[in-house]
Specification:
The protein is an alpha/beta fold. It has a domain at 100-198 and 276-341: 2-enoyl-CoA Hydratase, Chain A, domain 1 (Alpha-Beta Complex), CATH 3.90.226.10. 53% of the residues lie in helices and 15% in strands. It is built from 12 helices and 9 strands. The longest helix has 33 residues, at 2-34.
């Protein structure tokens, strides 16, 4: 027994030392990362990626002898191009730049925290964009909080105000707050079965007041201001509070409708602002979008005579944040699935 006791004490000491070292390591890493919290702007030449894919397919379909001839011809072409570029550089000539299409991606969550990256991406594009350039935003979002998506739409408005053409491409869903963002664009392209619309406002809150009363638990809520709290989670709700809550929802809905109407004046807003959603083909008929198609076809069509540039801003995360954010995102997705389960038809 004494031997087991000493062995257990030895193991406890080892575990304590290991835990202490791990805690210190995490603190050191967090302190180091805190000094370089600013994110990173990543630029991807999408045109080159598409061309490489096309070349890989073309070469892959050739037989062995033809592939050797192709590679030989490509080497010769690269040498000629390099020689021509050097000659132009010596003469002080600059290669004519093609118009650019800046491609951004926004995959929104309920709290629209992705707007932080969108803000940086829009700012970066505006800093270098020329009159002949344009922006394509690949958008996917079922909506979320009003203030978050309101800010995201405002970021896209910055492009519109600077007369930088903006096209929004929707492959899956741009509903509610997602459509608030999409309607800012000069042109909206959506896949045939993408979900669009849902121009409405929803809010729900559980109330545990009767349960607490049954358990003889009192809840006191003190406010300064008649409508500081309308509906509460634990207190007793009144009909006056419910009425005010509905008025606030209707007011938000009115602001939403006015915004969409201002962005797309030709839209019959009263017909589409019912909270319903439509698929791509139906959305085109109602004027919610301009064209039916996928983002892939859109970008391939824009490649002719233009250069596609992917722009993505990524924030550096501390080690601790990676774990907490991952858990929060999982909970967020689970909640969103439950909220939508009874609202979207299944195929």
């Amino acid at each position: 027994m004494e031997l087991l006791s000493e062995y257990g004490l030895f193991l406890a000491k080892i575990v304590t030392v290991v835990v202490a070292i791990a805690v210190i390591a995490v603190l050191v890493v967090n302190l180091a990362q805190r000094k370089r919290q600013r994110g990173e702007l990543r630029i991807t030449r999408l045109s080159e990626q598409y061309k490489e894919m096309q070349e890989d397919m073309s070469v892959g379909l050739l037989d062995g002898h033809q592939q050797k001839l192709w590679h030989k011809a490509q080497k010769k072409k690269h040498k000629q191009d390099e020689k021509a570029a050097k000659a132009k550089a010596k003469q002080g000539q600059q290669t004519a730049l093609k118009p650019r299409v800046y491609v951004l991606d926004f995959k929104g969550s309920m709290d629209a925290h992705e707007v932080t990256s969108l803000r940086e991406e829009v700012t970066a594009v505006m800093a270098v964009a020329k009159p002949e350039d344009q922006v394509v935003l690949r958008l996917e979002s079922p909506g979320g909080v009003v203030h978050g998506y309101g800010l995201a739409a405002s970021q896209l408005q910055r492009l519109r105000e600077k007369n930088i053409p903006l096209t929004v491409a929707v492959d899956k869903v741009a509903a509610s707050g997602g459509y608030m963002m999409a309607c800012v664009a000069d042109k909206i392209v959506a896949a045939p079965f993408a979900i669009l619309g849902s121009i409405g406002v929803v809010a729900q809150i559980p109330n545990f007041n009767r349960f607490l009363k049954n358990k003889e638990i009192d809840i006191e809520l003190h406010t300064a201001g008649q409508y500081k709290r309308t509906l509460t989670l634990l207190g007793e709700n009144t009909e006056e509070g419910r009425q005010k809550f509905r008025e606030d929802l209707n007011e938000t809905h009115l602001l939403f409708k006015d915004f969409v109407k201002r962005m797309r004046p030709s839209l019959d807003i009263e017909q589409v602002a019912t909270g319903e959603h439509w698929y791509g083909m139906q959305a085109r008929e109602k004027g919610l979008i301009d064209e039916v198609g996928t983002s892939d076809d859109l970008l391939l069509g824009l490649m002719e005579g233009r250069e596609l540039i992917g722009v993505r801003y990524t924030q550096r995360k501390r080690m601790l944040d990676r774990f907490t954010n991952s858990a929060a995102e999982s909970a967020d997705r689970l909640l969103l699935r439950w909220l939508q389960r009874g609202q979207k038809p299944l195929l």
